[in-house]
What does this fold into?
Amino acid sequence: MSAPAPAPPALEVHDLVSAYGAVRAVDGVSLTVPAGSITAVLGANGAGKTTLLRTVSGAKAAQSGRVLADGVELTRLPADRVVRHGVAHVPEGGGVITQLTVEENLRLGGLWRADRADRVRAREEMYQLFPVLAERRRQPAGALSGGERQMLAIGRALMARPRVLLLDEPSLGLAPMVTRRLLRLLRELRDGTGLTVVLVEQNARGALSVADHGFVLSLGRVAASGDADRLLADDRTRHAYLGF
Amino acid sequence: MRKAPPLVAVLAAAALLTASCTGAGEVAEGDAASLDVSTGVTDDSVRLGTHMPLTGPAAPGYSQISVGARAVFDYVNAQGGVHGRQIEYLVEDDGYDPVRTVEVVNELVLQDEIFAMVGGLGTPTHARVIDFLNEQGVPDLFVSSGALMWNQPDTHPLTFGYQVDYTREAKIQGQYVAENFPDASVGVFFQNDDVGTDTQAGLEQYLGEQIVVREPYESGNTDIGPQVSALEEAGAEVVICECIPTYMALLILESQAIGYEPQFVASSIGADTVTLNGLLQEFADADGGTADDMLDGLIATGYLPQATAADDPWLELYTQIYEEYVPEEQPFTNTLLYGMVQATQTSMALMAAGPDLTRQSLVDALHSGEFNGPGLVPFSTAEGEHSGFQGAYVTQYHAGGRSEILQEPRVTDRETGPIEEFDFSRPTPDEVVFYGG
Amino acid sequence: MTDDTARTGRAAVLDRWRRSPMLLRHLAAALAAFLGIVLLTSVTDPFTNLRIATIGYHLVAVAGLALLIGVSGQISLGHGAFMFIGAYTMALLVIHVPGSPLWANLLLAIAASCAAGVAVGAATARLHGPYLAGATLILAVGLPAVALRYPEALGGSNGLTFSVAGTPPALSDTVPDPRWQSWVVWLAVLLALVVVANVSRGRLGRRLRAVRDDEAAAALSGLRPGRLRTVAFVISAGCGGLAGALQAYLLGTATPSSFGLALSLSLLAAVVLGGLGSLWGALWGALALVYVEVWGHDAAEALGLSDHVANNLPIALFGAALIAIVLLWPSGVQGGLARLGAAVRTRRIGPGGRPD
Amino acid sequence: MEQLAELVLNGVSSGAVYAALALSLMIIYQATRVVNFAQPGLALIAAYTAFSVTRATGSYWLGFVLALVVGGALGVLAERLLIRPVQRRSELSAIIVTLGLLMLLQGVAGMVWSNEPHSFPYPLDFRGRFSATDAFAVAAVGVTALGLLLLFRYTPLGLRMRAAAFRPEVARMVGVRVGLMLTVGWGIASVIGALAGMLAVPPFIFPNVLDGVFVYGITAAVIGGLDNPFGAVLGGFTLGIGLSLVSGYLGPELVTLAALVIVVVVLSLRPDGLFTRPRARQV
It folds into this structure.
């Protein structure tokens, strides 16, 4: 073995194009997410944020471009393979399966992993992380509140012990206090486990307050990027794209 | 000139509207079609057609009839045909659905231009086409059904019945049961259509008080548990089954299942012991006997020889034909035999009509000739009497394939007339002309 | 006349055509179609006449069902039941009221099946998916059993036999019965299709589509989805009733076994086979119902297959055709033809043609 | 009183068959939102396979096992080759494809085995008011329903299948191979369908033998609700007993009409069937 190459970034996206029919929702996006960072993807409604995440996680097929995680090519893989490469996706609204119980939802997240004992361990960890879920483990997930559903969704994604967590609008429909708690939790997770987080948000101020870096999308392209503090401080970007 | 075509359409539409103001049900008497024609006949061929259920829920059993008929026609053709004409036999599948019967018979008559219809099968199906066939002047021979309506020479002069009708047969059954089981309670298990109503009209005349229970079945619903329970509950010691072989077999099985052992009496349509044996072959009776043992003792009426009968000159011939012309997988059943006899009598009629074959000559031949032969009872196609077979004999099946005649053939009418013995010398195949020139 | 003036002349005619009131347009088209039928039946033999008439009554049943499925988004597996009602209404009228004119019989048959449509439509308006499918399926199987329950009035399992007046005496020398009957059938069918076309293109159709596409939004904008669905059900039930009545008129028969599950399912198959969304689709479906069977039969005969194979070839072919069409031409024969047509047109116009 | 008992017992044994078919329809509906009209066709081919094998080897149970295997394999093939391509299209496309498959399979069965009825054995002794065969049918259906319940509630496979059925896209994101789950669902359902066929066919087999049973199977599924195995099973037994009573007390000609009445009454009271839990309001 020669000199160790620098560790590849947790997630790399090159010239990604993803379209619905003739409409290119993601139109040549490139971005790099360093391992162990929290990266915010911002932009107005319809800027292509959700499509970007869905294309990265394989929920939607890309037209062209590449996606790599830890240097491993994920571009043509379907969602159920992508998650096996350590990239977990929490879709918009969480995607909890309301007909299943809280515990079933949680178990589902780790089922593909062969290590049975660790699956059980992971579940207990999630219950520690989200005690409210432990209390309601036998109830159908449909009975949870919005914030609890987000916790369940995140917990379910973490059951896969991912290296990259893709989060789509976790704050949508949540009370400001709940949102703040959620965002703080992300930070703690990153600090505790070295998890890489990609956070898609319309709530740019909240997202940038926890993020290390940010990308601003507009009409499917990257309009601005940089450190979170810089983006927060840059009035032009704030006014043009972030609306605060 | 350019305006003309729309004008035609408008006029036609107007004519339709005016015409549709007269009653839809007021049918004018049409002129009878000319019979002095040889439609479907050439110097070396004559084309016959029939409609039968070959597919669908009603096909089981019946599809063998045309196989038997075709075998005999093949045999006749191999002997040189009738008056030098090869018989062409077109079989159309109607699935026992009257709508399709009308369609396929139209196709046979208008498109294929058959000379005559032979053995169209089923009451609801054929009833829809007898008007059409008579209007079109198509001889309608030997309808495969025991309904009473085929014998109406006044209104349907070209339609000729074939089977002994359900009422006649039931009268003979009724009388036999009344005489031989005078103290028994009788149950009737019947198909819920004209088979049921016509047979009960005959049974009533002799068994009135004796019948303690009547249970119908709907063709297509094979769950007959409730009916069999009811028969047993009513204490019927003799059960008369006016049904097709499938339901005869179901009745036997279901009775076995609940340990009910009445004396079964079957009518000719259901008493095909070879078919019954095939249907029951996977099952054994209570003592571990074979299917054949289940049929042991079955009393049945019939008018044709049984496929299992021994020492019958006609069966010798038919067995030969069967071996030569019937595809291997077909068993030699009464149903197959039925088609063979029908085809034989059709060929006899065509021979009797002479070398100058017209529809009129065929009808004349039917009215004047005798078509006795394969059948065990007299067969009538006389002017004013188109009923076909006139009576029935009573037989009992014994395990091992032997049938014993319990009562020699008797004839009767379909009303309340008496049941009589008769004098009848049945011609052998050598005495009957059904091919040649 | 130069090419150019011909084109502008044609454009003007087309333009006038498009601007004329819809009902008038449809009536004119129906008249043209009727003319076509008159011509077609005049040059074909009586048996083909009968087949043309058979296609006619299948067409109206299929078109009614296509309206229900395509425009209002409901799936009925039981449309044979409405044909049953129409056929028996016609049969009973012909038998018991022989003086009643044909048009009155047809109207009464439509009325009877519409009434049944109201009942069924109201009962099923709340149902969705498999529940609607199951309920209409058992309707198709269960309703004809009414005839078994009342054998005196309805003829039991043997059904009813009757004869219907043929060509009026004045024309009977020149027009054979089957030709006359096919005219009557097609006149009624085309009038019904005018109604169907108007409904489907008109305001009611737009509302139905709105409910189909987004029930909640439609309800918010003041439409009443339940009632609209029932209306669609009633119209298509009426078409089914008319088809049944015409069948009874044409064939002189009404038997419960003719209206079994197989009929209902083949109607549905015909709708999809032809293609939803246009009356042409219904026509292809009706043609398929009549001709796939015929071709299967002919093919079996031509190939000299054994009895078992020959007897079952038509049904197997129909099934295979159904699968192939759905897999290969998702929008049915009409959709496939339209695509082919478009491809041919673009090729003819060439690369210089207007881009989309 | 004795008649009542007999009719009920008779209804229980036919109800078992309806229940089995309802179960198989329910699983496929749960997995793929398709009402599988091809089910009687798949079961028919399975039963004919058993018929041929039993005739050739003399062993009923070898035929029985092979029927289940063939039934399951046909279901898997049907899902992969025919249903998957139309899965994303309208509900109608799938119905029509299964309908086409039914016609094709019935046609093929007629071609291979002819339209004539053949004798088809019962699994066990058929004699007695409630025979060994009846008991076998009821037990088989009971075990199947229980097995399904355990599978769905308590096994990882069942959890994956449910997730794939409820929210396929979400299931995919958590690593469930949704396509595989749908195929497995069709396979399991078709094995149960083949079981229903083996119970329903005797005493005679012919291409249309399962038509009526299938109609009642759908009816049972609809009145029981397509939500859980118990609904299907209870729906099947309810219908079997109900129709047996109608046949015995009112006449066999009323059976289909009675089924219609039952469906109308049940669905007008409970549009999602008798045993479906009231739907959790989804926000």
Remarks:
- The radius of gyration of chain C is 22 Å.
